[in-house]
Design goal:
Blueprint (H helix, E strand, L loop, with lengths): L2 H12 L5 H11 L5 H8 L3 H22 L1 H23 L6 H18 L1
Helix pairs in contact: 1-4, 2-4, 3-4, 5-6
């Protein structure tokens, strides 16, 4: 996963667990694409200080995911919902001949979603 996308996902899921100061700095890097120098100037801290905070935030967010696995669960459910959508489209277009197989796949996918929740 591209680093900025990964940082965005991690922040979306776990950002509220950071301090307000950390959130402000991390948002500047991830969402506003500000440089370390711009944030340092705005916050009245050194560029190295900003760098250290971002690294600590990255580490903390990755540790939250390692323990809680919310993003992994979300991605799995998203894939299963996409599979249900694909099956529904195939059904609507009469591409599925065996309705029992179709229903079995739907039940299997929905059971997987329920299990993940």
């Amino acid at each position: 996963m591209e680093k900025i996308v990964e940082q965005g996902l991690l922040y979306d899921f776990y950002g509220e667990l950071l301090t307000e100061h950390q959130r402000h700095i991390y948002e500047g890097i991830v969402y506003e694409n500000l440089s370390l120098s711009e944030i340092a100037s705005e916050q009245g801290i050194s560029r190295q200080g900003v760098h250290d905070i971002v690294k600590r935030c990255d580490h903390a967010l990755m540790e939250y995911e390692k323990k809680l696995k919310l993003i992994a669960r979300f991605m799995k459910i998203k894939e299963q919902i996409q599979a249900i959508d694909d099956l529904s489209r195939q059904y609507e277009q009469n591409e599925i001949e065996d309705k029992a197989v179709y229903c079995g796949k739907l039940r299997q996918l929905s059971a997987g979603i329920l299990e993940a929740l």
